[in-house]
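Can't paste images in this forum, so I'm doing it all in text. The chain is below; anyone willing to post the predicted structure tokens underneath?
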Amino acid sequence: MPRTQHTAGAFDIRNIIGGLIGLYGIILVLMGLFGDQELAKTGDVNANLWAGLAMVVIAAIFLGWAWLRPVRVPEEPTEQRAEQPERPPAQDGG
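Text version of the structure:
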């Protein structure tokens, strides 16, 4: 019986990190576009907008990486798991 494989999908840590960074990035972009601007504090630079855009780009890199190179998880048949003998406990060297 051949082994089948599936991907980690939503449980891949790159998807979780990319999603969270992307969410925070979108919030910062919206705050940079529509929020109360206090540009004097940042030297006339819209820090929320630029930081948000950078975070959206990083999130896209993470999500693209997870999509292009998914983690393959081998799936063992349940019969094979039941037939495998238990391993003896490891013994101390001392």
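The helical segments are 13-34, 47-68, 78-83. The first helix runs from residue 13 to 34.
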